[in-house]
């Protein structure tokens, strides 16, 4: 059973930066396409960034040019570097497989003050 543990969230001012981490248990990480998702209050969970096992990335238009997803297979960890944060980036952030079929972790709260 894969377990996901996200960390790195917090309170930041508009224009600031944060780096999120997600440690994944199990032996399938290095072969898995990973993604970051977020869920703002009252909204559906949305996928915002993906990275495949070869390191190719894709981003939602809302974060393109500001967020960078990366991975370190030696640490079973996927990262999300978030720059130029906006108020509307406030959400709980989660990682999961690109198809979202692993049990969800607790997420990490990101709050951007206006």
Task: Please supply descriptive tags for the structure shown above.
114 residues; mainly beta
A few lines on this structure:
The chain is built from no helices and ten strands. The chain has 114 residues and is mainly beta. The strands form two sheets. It has a six-stranded mixed sheet with strand order 2-10-9-4-5-6, with no helix packed on it.
Describe this structure in words.
This protein is an all-beta fold and 114 residues long. Helix content is 0%, strand content 48%. It contains no helices and ten strands. The strands form two sheets. A six-stranded mixed beta sheet has the order 2-10-9-4-5-6, with no helix packed on it. Strands 1-3-8-7 form a four-stranded antiparallel beta sheet, with no helix packed on it. It starts with a strand and ends with a strand. The model has no long low-confidence stretch (mean pLDDT 96).
- Biggest pleated-sheet summary: 6 strands, mixed
CA radius of gyration: 13 Å
Question: What is the terminal-to-terminal distance?
Answer: 39 Å
Low-confidence stretches: none
Structural classification: mainly beta
SSE topology sketch:
Layout: E1 4-7, E2 10-13, E3 18-24, E4 34-39, E5 46-51, E6 57-59, E7 67-72, E8 77-82, E9 91-97, E10 108-113
Parallel strand pairs: 2-10
Antiparallel strand pairs: 1-3, 3-8, 4-5, 4-9, 5-6, 7-8, 9-10
